[in-house]
Amino acid sequence: MSENTTASTSPGVPVEDPTPFGWLTTADHKRTGRLFIISSLAFLIMGVVLDLLVRLDLTSATKFVSLDADSFAQSFALSRETLVLLFLIPAFLGLAMYLVPLQIGASNLAFPRAATASFWIWKISAVVLIGAYLGNGGPYGGWANGVDLHLLALSGLVIALLLGAVTVATTVMTLRSPGLYMDKTPPFTWSALVTASMLVVSLPVLLGQIAILYIDHRYGRVFLLGNYGIWERIDWIHRTPQLFIYVVPVLGVAAEIVLAAAKRRVFEPLAMYFTIGLVGLFGFGAWTNFAITGEGADIIDGLEGVVLVALYAGALIATAGLLGLLGLAVIQNRKLPKISTSLLAAFAAGKLVLTGALVGLVGAAADWLEIAGRGNDGNPQLRMTTWVTGQQSVLIYGAGLLGLLAAIHWWAPKIWGRQLNELLGLLNFLVIGAGALLAFVGPALSGLLTEQPDFVYADPNATSLYSNWVDDTGAEGLSALGVAGTALLLAGAALLILNLFISICLKKGTEATEDPWSAQSPEWLLPSPPPIGETDELPMLTSGTPLLDAQEENEEANT
Amino acid sequence: MSDITPTLASGRPQRPRTQLVATGFASAVCAMMMAGALGFYMARRHASGPHPGSDWLDGLAVPNPQFDYALLTLVASLVTAHWALWASRRRDTAHAWTAIATTIVLGLGFINMVMYSMNRMGLEIGSGEYQNLAFATTGLALAIVVLGLLYIGLMGLRSLGGSVGQRGSTSLGAAVFFWDFAALVWAVTWYTVYVVK
Predict the structure, then answer these.
(1) CB contact, 8 Å: B75 with chain A?
(2) CB-based contact B11 A10, cutoff 8 Å
(3) Contact A530, A102 (CB under 8 A)
(4) pLDDT for A459-493, tens place per residue?
């Protein structure tokens, strides 16, 4: 079916404009979802390029390789903001906007125009943010008005993402088909609800902080060190445990794909919902750590240390529990599922969430484990070294990008009506997987073995990167590994976009049937892709696996 | 659509609680935003003052009676907001209109009082740490109050603009819920920044 087919609707229901202009004023969740997904992929390329430039500089302790002192600090900040606020969160938000109504039998999102507004506010704020950086106005920037503009753009991004999160959460809470109770919803929908709810209770803290940062920077720079005091107070949104909230949908994607491939239900559904919820819950609280004052980053003893270790250990156990449940479902099937790009990527993404939690746990417990000889003697701790860069890489690139690769390959038939090229997909999986591993291992080992600092807050204008760095033996080689990994990731992101272009835009992909994967969840009952606009024909759902239910009924009737 | 699952006979089901749930989420957003700002305030207060020999307030004196009256005005507007909801549920248009108009007038009066109190206090933006923090936290709380006022006005017009029915009073109920929440936000902000200081 063509993407531009319009659904027949009853009076009072907004009619979608099928022309390109309709994308601007759309009130259809499918269009808004597509806009978010495609735009976030474009920003992914930008984020990886910036990360590559920053990592090139890390290959030398004595001189800047690719950027100058001023650009290094700002590129570092922009690369983090791009990868999190312009790629990771919006990509999965877009996916949720597209899929959640289809999975719960709703005709649209709860507030479709608010969802569209969230996209355009996000897009405009992103452009303003990049403009502020281009004018030397990011954190550590020299253009004072640009720094203010950066803070305003950051607020715009957060408000837009929160608006989107509220529409998704409200949709799951109130628009489920009568009879589809919360404990019957498909795992991706549940993970979308967990993420949206956790975003609602964590990201607004940044808004409160930005208000104070803005007023102090704009009026007098009385107590927050002007543009030097900004980054350390907003950096918590790019770090663990906050990062766990952003990768919760990856667990939902993994559960959907693995269970469909195994053709089984999960052994204990409530345990699955519980473990996914726990990972989101353990992501909450990052801001209580060192965000408020920016002065606690070098303290990891007492209650704070215990809480951090408990958070990471909890996330680790919950993820392991979920992966164990999915593994049991595969074993129950007693034959190997058909290998596909989505299955491999989903499996790897799930494992990498687990790795991210483990890396976080080691970082938090470094003092207790006496790793790298750190202590409260003024020296940086493990979590202030490039160990953190490694952790960010494993969660953003490893779990996030591989999870998105799995999701796009799995749901491309439902989103665009065509299947993506599988051979290109497998190559894509290998390139992104290898890139994520190198991007993780290089900086993580460098942080562990050479104490290479993550970023110098105190003196970003230093002529050499790390003037106080004592032991840099081997760091250059390990940083080069990270560079190679990021270069591979850039190739992987480009390959994903190329596959989408060839399969969807050039229409080389196989035209999809309603259910090309013999999947379980309700969206596969609908045409691929569903017509734009709202339809009157809503499925009456009482289960999150109607297709599996029907298959089992047929098997029972035949025996 | 696949014929495996029956379709809903009634087409589009009624969803009376959607707006209320969304308002609940919006309130959570505002609550966490204020938690971030007030947490920042308290952390800075703990780090910078008031220590012996230091003056956290830079010699400023908080005009307590004016702030108290502002809070009382806000509490009075809560009563009128609930009066509006009560009237709209009974389809009593005259009382509902009167109550909504009174709520809006009291809300505007509250904002005016807070601005006056800050002016009387001599709070100047950019003149000190307490001043900047007070401006930021009070500004955020006032923004939530203004948002609540707009919401209650808009839902009032919507619910009374043609029909005072179940759907209209549900919308107004969501707006009144947010107004209650906005008043709570102000009370916490006022206590933290102007009472405990």
Answers:
(1) no
(2) yes
(3) yes
(4) 545 444 455 555 566 778 888 999 999 999 999 99
